[in-house]
Amino acid sequence: MSWVFLFFAGLFEIGWAIGLKYTDGFSKPLPTILTVASMIVSLGLLGLALKTLPVGTAYAVWTGIGTVGTALLGIWLLGEPATAVRLGCIALIVCGIMGLKLAA
Question: Mind telling me which residue stretches traverse the membrane in this protein (predicted)?
């Protein structure tokens, strides 16, 4: 169950990372509320996952999911460049996440 908590914690991390872009410096109320709520849920789920998972593994996977998802949504939603090098680096992060899962 801890891995499920960790996966959803990572998804909510993506939500708050992308949400920060839409808060316009925390000047827009609705995006700000949703972003802060996403932060709280993400950290809460990470805390639940840490009950049984090693902190180094859980933190690395949590940030990895957030990094990959945020980078991909940046490409898709925000028009950031999708160069071969960038996509290759994202793939390396995914390999690292999978390796940590297999090693745990």
Answer: 33-50, 57-78, 84-103
